[in-house]
Every structure is written in C-alpha cells, then in structure tokens.
Amino acid sequence: MQPIPVDQLTPDQHDLIQAAIHGRGLAYAPLSHFRCGAAVRDESGAIHHGGNIETVDMTLTTHAEMCAINAMRMAGGKKLTALACALLAGNGYSFPCGLCRQKIREFSVDGNVPILCVSLATDTDIRAVHLATIDELFPYPFLPDCIA
Fold it and tell me: Most CB atoms closer than 10 Å: which of 34, 52, 67, 118?
C-alpha cells in the first residue's frame, strides 16, 4: 500500500475517484449511515459506479464495490482494469472488505489491477488516497480456474 498525494493523481485516477465519490452520494444507508461509493473502469475504458444499498435486514446489503461490478457487467463490460472506493473515514482506510476483494479479483483482468482507496474528510473533500493492487490486498484468491 502506498499513499498518493491528491495533487499527483493522474487524470484517469481522478476521474475514477470522482465517480466513486458520486456513487457514495447515491448510497442508501439509513441504518448504519456508513455510505460507501465505488467505481470501476472496464477493459474498454468505460467507468461504472455504485453505492452500498442497505435494507432493514442487513444480510441483504449490497456493497458499493459489488454494485459497481454488477453495473459494469450489466453494461456489457467483462473485466475491470481499475477500481476506486470512497468513504468518510476519519482516521481509517477505505479498503474493500474480504467479500468485495473476492469479487474484485474474480472480475479483474489480472492481479495487478490498481485499487484506489479514498478516505474522505467531508462528503467531497479527499483526506487521503492509498494505492494497492488487488493481489496485495487479496493474495490467495479462489478463482474459476481453481475448480477442477
């Protein structure tokens, strides 16, 4: 994991992060108030975003990363080449959870897909950005080729 100063983000990274922040604004979290947004770039360069969606039965919650990947697939994208996730994190990091890491890796073009983890200071102001690859976050994935 490496920190990236906001002023050193590439235009592609900035666009992906802004889409993740937009997805966070669309999140529905009436119980936890923990709104997360995510965005993926697919192999054609298109960006797809999502936000977490809670229900009263928290087991039916859809995570932002899952929502963005589902949106990519429904739009015809097959594999993601980058992902950003954004949340309001006072002192913590915005890394995807274990469930999301599995789905991210399964739909990644390879293990070197960059994951931009964006910790927001306010709804729109970026406090910190950290970069890792999906293989760094999830080194031993269970993938379709694992099935005999």
Answer: 118
